[in-house]
Amino acid sequence: NALGTPFEPVLQCIRCGACLNVCPVYRHIGGHGYGSIYPGPIGAVLSPVLDGYEKFGDLPFASSLCAACTETCPVRIPLHELLIKHREVMMDKLKMDHSFNDKIMKMVGVGTSAPVLFNMALDMDHAMMGVLATKDQGSVENEYNSGRIKQTKMLPKLARGWTDVRDLPRPPKKNENFRHWFKEHKAALEAQKHE
């Protein structure tokens, strides 16, 4: 199925597993999450070629596109580029409506490129998550036990889908996040640099 297509480079795979070892998605979900005998980045490219997008159309989207798989592949299969190609085929050839995704990505781009908007979004995130979070019962007290977001009707449908099967970790309080810590410690870090 891959011969003579843009996905032909996947046939060079020697099944060494190097792409699986470096893939952050594979590390978190494991091999069974792919629903195919070919897990990891190589499976996300090969499975839709072998069995179609109807069965494995979600696999090309199960990637951070960090390109670690491509960098570590001993036969230099451009796995992250092939994942992007699968996404293009699904959006264009299968006539999937991507106008909603385009609008969302434009909003994210505007929000993350303007520091004022980004900080406002962080403030809203901390405020909303504080309201929605519930304290874990019976957990061992430690620095990470600040509560988790449980399934709730108030969450948007997309987030509720996540909390149907797992708890969403509560974000740190505003004065405990990395940005706040960095501001407090920046002077000390600069002093260490110049010593």
From TrEMBL:
One of its GO terms (molecular function) is iron-sulfur cluster binding. Residues 3-34 form the 4Fe-4S ferredoxin-type domain. Pfam families: Fer4_8 (PF13183), LutB_C (PF11870). PROSITE patterns: 4FE4S_FER_1, 4FE4S_FER_2. One of its GO terms (biological process) is lactate metabolic process. It comes from the Bacteria. This is Iron-sulfur cluster binding protein.
